[in-house]
């Protein structure tokens, strides 16, 4: 989500500039005794500073729109999601740039995600869906743990395990006992790939089969009990909604952004994009960009 926030804010700052240019390049924006500043001068300055970024994004949106569709329902849901996540920050962006413009930015981002999801290859054992119950040592996981804190956490997790062993529902026990922020959701962590969790947690989660519950696991945060609620086994037979949920988890795990870039490169190639401006002739030349 943090990456989405940064991307949205940056896009507003950069793409908003491109709207300044129109057919009347000679129109005067500022008059001074030393001379006037025209729209053409402003556009050329923008082109030098951020032209490549703007042009690339415009092309990506154009070519992806031919293959993918973002429905009004999907866009409304994303808008509300970002509004809930960013709060006042999002409202300020909308007030400054207009709701229509922000919705277009979100639509562009969603088109890219759809293209990237098509490039995600799901292999068994790469992602897992799990819930957990945490008995934490303290509010500061980097602080040295005292014997008293460890004993208190162990006592609590033992009580939790006893309740689970007696047949109480995992979700109900998590809501009542877990010290993690996921407690209100029954401990649900959603889908996650390897490298997202601490090693002890990851090893246990990726060892369990769907429906299985772990023994007590110790990490730097405290004691955990994990329940695996979903795996990629039988992926081809899953409904599209669940497949997309898994693909999104894998896409989020790709912190390098390689999957997205592969999708964008493919879209540009398939659309037979030809850059007419000599200044940007290598805009989509990955070899030239790497030099």
Automatic annotation (TrEMBL):
Residues 125-230 form the PpiC domain. Residues 1-23 form the signal peptide. GO terms for molecular function: peptidyl-prolyl cis-trans isomerase activity. Its EC number is 5.2.1.8. It is an enzyme of class 5 (isomerase). One of its GO terms (cellular component) is plasma membrane. Transmembrane segments: none annotated. It is a lipid-anchor. GO terms for biological process: protein folding; protein transport. It comes from the Bacteria. It is found in: Cell membrane. It catalyses: [protein]-peptidylproline (omega=180) = [protein]-peptidylproline (omega=0). The keyword Lipoprotein applies. Keywords: Cell membrane, Isomerase, Lipoprotein, Membrane, Palmitate, Rotamase, Signal. Plays a major role in protein secretion by helping the post-translocational extracellular folding of several secreted proteins. Belongs to the PrsA family. This is Foldase protein PrsA. The lineage of its organism: Bacteria, Bacillati, Bacillota, Bacilli, Bacillales.
